[in-house]
């Protein structure tokens, strides 16, 4: 019997963590960004997951925190960082980030999800490993921004910039 279970912000948290690069990296903040509007679906054949999809509204991003830097990150600085991130992601043109996995393989303690990630209108093959502990599913995946045509934000002629690799993390409770 095939069934589909949906997950979203009420069931967990989807975050993105950035790093800082460049000669002046120690002056910048590594960001934790959360998304307030996202929806995932897990398709099961009996008790076995066979497909997964996740859609994220880019405009729903919020800068939750900034670590490092010379001074603590202020609320106005979080707003500026959000604006810069939305520009880098071309959110007015590409409002969604989408991951679809049509191959789900059981691995120790979880699953390997193989499919396609679409960012800024560019789709690339992408694989994510998730752990499953009862009804809790969690996973992290590194995404290289330039692979999707995203130019990481920089200032001071590149002396301070967002690192090209970002880490996307999901932790959610999936009702069985």
Automatic annotation (TrEMBL):
Span of domain Lipid/polyisoprenoid-binding YceI-like: 2-175
Gene3D superfamilies according to UniProt: Lipid/polyisoprenoid-binding, YceI-like
Origin: domain of life: Bacteria
Family in the record: Belongs to the UPF0312 family.
Identification of the protein by name: YceI family protein
Organism: Gordonia neofelifaecis NRRL B-59395
